[in-house]
Structure formats: structure tokens, C-alpha cells
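Review form for a predicted model. The reviewer records the input and the model, then writes brief findings.
Reviewer: anonymous (R2)
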Amino acid sequence: MITLLRFLLIPLFAWLAVQYGRSIDAKNPDEAFRWIAIATYTVASMLDGLDGWIARTFNQQSLTGAIMDPLVDKSLLITGLMVATFVNWGADWHLPIWFIILVIIRDLVIILGIICLYFLRGKVPIQPHWTGKICTVTQMIATGWIMLKVTPINPLYPTILASIFTIWSGIVYCLIGYQLLQRRQSPT
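Model under review:
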């Protein structure tokens, strides 16, 4: 139920952010849209932790949850990144387009790698690596930096940090995939 609620918050967040961008385009920024969008994004993000805690604590883990939770996580993150890239948050308050391209390429390479491993190896163990978790956190920080308009530091700096972890985790997952492929090809 929590995962479903998080999924429903994603289009609400996007709509609120777009309304804020339109208010800026109309030269009449409606900060209420921005703050409600930020609150919606924050609630959807925080519910992920609550959902995981409840599933582990009360032994309510399910195959549906194991599939849906990461899909909702990625949908929320990609929506946040797209909104922070393409919606007008004000002068110089956006993620550079090269960053969203980098994120999408990394994710596509990982997905294609998993598909290839599946066809070559059968069952593929999917376990998050700590670099992937830090990648997600730094991408969320970069997105939040834009939405919150943190002024003393240019948004390019959190974007560069997120880019480093995006590339690093992509390389790590490719190496893990290569090691899994090598294990399959070794004689038993």
C-alpha cells in the first residue's frame, strides 16, 4: 500500500513542479507550488524508508514489493531529475541536460547488462552495491538543491558530485556483471 501511495505521489509532484515552472514563465512565481512539490517529493522519498522498515520488521516482504519498490524508486528519482532539468525553477536553477543524459545512459547500460546476463546465465542475483546507493543519494541531493534553491553554492557542484558517483557506480556494476559472466564461462 505504501509503495502504491508513493507511485501516486510521483505524478502529483511532477504536476506541482510544472505549475511552479509555469508561474515563473508568467513572471509571477507561485512559491506555494514549489514548496508543496518539495514536500510531496520528500514524503514520497521518506515513505521508501518506512516501507522497507515495515516489510523487514513485520516480515511482510513479497515478490510484488521486491519488484515494485525499485521501480517506484527509479520512477521518483528520474521524475525528480527530469523536473529539475526541464522545468523552469528560475535563473540558473536547473540541472544541466548532460547530467540527465548521463543518468539515463548509466541506467540503460545496467538494464541491458542484466538482460544479457539473464539470457547467458539464467538467474541473475541483483544486489545493490554501496556505490549505487551513494549514487542515488547524490542524485537526490542535486535534485533537491535545485528545488530548494540553496544559494551559497552553485548547483553545478552537487551535480558534479552526483556525476562522479553515477559514473563510478556504473563502472562497478559493469565489473560485477563481467565477473558474473566469467563465472558462467569457467569450467566446473
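Findings: The helical segments are 2-25, 31-57, 63-86, 97-121, 130-148, 156-185.
Further findings: The chain has two domains: 1-89, 95-188.
Recommendation: see findings above.
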